Amino acid sequence: MKKLSLYTLLLVSALTALTSCTEDFNKDVAAPQSWKQEDGKTISFSAVAASATTIDLATVTTDSVAICSFTAPPVSEGQTIKGFDIVLDGTVKLNVNAHGQVAKADLQSAVTKLYGKRPAPRTMKSVVNAYMSTNGQVFRASSDVINIIVTPVAPLIESAYYLIGDMNGWDGAKLIKFNHSDKDVYEDSYFSVIVKIPANSYWKIIPQSNVDAGNVWADGVLGTITNGDTSMSGNLTRNNPQAGKIATDPGYVKITLNMMEYTYSIEYIGNMALQLYVPGAHQGWNPATAPFVYCQNYDMKYDGYVNFTADNQGFKFTSEQNWDGTNYGDGGNGTLSTAGGDLKVATAGFYRLTADLSSTPLKYTATKTVWGLIGDATTGGWDSSTPMTLNPETGEWTVTTTLTGGKSFKFRANDAWDINLGGNANNLTYGGDNVSVTSDGTYKVTLKLGNPTAYKFTMVKQ
């Protein structure tokens, strides 16, 4: 409990008022007074949290929720109580009524502002303030710090979701994973996938927890409310989920889930090329013999490597191995345009090319790469790369080097981690797992980037 002199009560800056009371108590708050305190004139004010356990807003059915309790300071003749507020974590201020209640919606907004939307208990160090008016000036009495524990309202959102249905023969071993950003799922609740389907394809959604449990049909499966629902957007349910139906011709569709709202939307794309060809000055501008970039995840994002043999060489992306399809040129500032001129690289070299036809505007990148090995299995450890040598005809990088058994390495470009490959020898992935070395020895390591459908490597002991 704090006992504060009426004449030495401190000022506090007004923050957002979040209940039905919207008066700014600080507008006329007097500055601290410096004359001698009068004997015997003190104010007692204390507060306690309304609950020693978590206030779970998902279970609150009223518009307001008790957050604390307190007794108003006593007043003398000529004094009035102007109101109360509570400051959460020294940052967010909510107006609170005389019963220690705040608006549920405003408490939800305050907690998510401080900690995000994930429904986890959040402990906030808080101070309750009482405002009193004396002779036209407003003074404040503050309680000691109390802990308010609140869990915000949010639905269950799992770390990943998978598509199952006619597109994969309802086979739980061939689930199609939805793509997601690297953000927290409660900050980015959207999951999407582009997939090729047969005509009139039925579907459901499998959550990550079912995959982890080894039973894709356990409780938690998501579907439509009505079996065979052909709506291209609607609500998802876990309660007796039914199979939705995409009543279209065969082709590619984009399915997007918003798990904060438990909704889905389906966009019919139709036919989509999995390859974009890269004709240009590096190979005589002949689409029929051009290298290509590949759409590995059916997401209209293409990736591949092309060796440009001279400076300032031009190139384009084409959807066909001729000039009769859709051709993409320079739209300026890293964008593609079907009406654009030639794309160009400034200097000769082995480039990673990407094209994103799912974005607006369409985008591309061209990054010159020089590859090497790095890891505790190499002579340079994790501090420096062991350089590899390019075979420009095959797109293969090789090195013969000493490797240490029981340790590991990865492939990375340009002595940096922006572009690195690891994982399975027959299907390397960006940011994949470290590659293990079984025994000490000298090895010839070959990184094969010439075929973008699957990046591979070999490691042969010499």
TrEMBL record:
Keyword Signal: yes
PROSITE patterns tied to this protein: PROKAR_LIPOPROTEIN
Species the sequence originates in: Bacteroides sedimenti
Entry-linked Pfam families: CBM_1st_SusF, SusF_N
Signal sequence annotation: 1-19
All copies of domain SusF first starch specific CBM, residue ranges: 160-267
Record's keyword terms, sorted: Signal
Protein name (Swiss-Prot/TrEMBL): Outer membrane protein SusF
TM segment ranges: none
Segments forming domain Outer membrane protein SusF N-terminal: 21-152
